[in-house]
Amino acid sequence: MYKTEAEFLKNYNPKNYDQLSMTSDILLLSISSEKQDNYRKINEKKLSILLVKRDDFPFKDMWCLPGGFLNPNTETLEDTAKRILKSEVNLENIYLEQLYTYDNLNRDPRCRVVSTSFIALVDKNKISGEINPNASWFNMEFVTDNDKSMKINLDNGEISFKIECKKQVDSTSKSIKYEITKNDFIAFDHPLIIFNGIDRVRNKIDYADLVFYMMPKHFTLGELQKVYEAILNKKLLEPAFRRTIANKVKKTNYVQTGEGHRPSVLFTYKKN
Question: Is residue 167 part of a domain?
Fold first, then answer.
């Protein structure tokens, strides 16, 4: 046994300790608009996600979240996430929130890899530079079953996966275990990260004002409601919705014209 810290450090050999790698994986979300056949209707809104097609093994030609390995000598996990956003999507200074840590034993066939995931939110119109040629935006469609499962289809179901609630892990904390039960196209355990990230955004949508990080500077209340509905995957009553967001927005002197209907007043986010 060593008697002092200095003695321990002098004899310290890192090879005596188990080694592992750490990564940061980013769930980058935005909103896309789909034009309606009826020009009098507001464009439909879809929650969209950025995925990167892998060009190397493991999981070659499958899609994954943008991510990368931590440089242990120069970076924190958040630094890694910011570096990836800059290199993959040419984004800086956007909303970034740590989600969860994923440490299943066999989540990466190369070695023991522990991943810390992040949620990033952006208005697509603010992406001015080139993105990774292997990266693409996918619109999301949710199919739920009484909160016991969620199937996520990406771009009309061409890519999909399913997450199911399997069992309660801890009766004291009410912790619930979710498992990937269908997945053919998404690498690693990234379907679980996507599911958990969507769940986090939904749970915070009313009090954390996350939606406005994906909105343009000016918008109509109808457009804003469509975005809420796309994220929550349900229709909202207009009067109740407008009461909910009344203290979050402020009216501007601008109006939206040229959309085939009466000019609509434009609003902006009212930061507290």
Answer: no
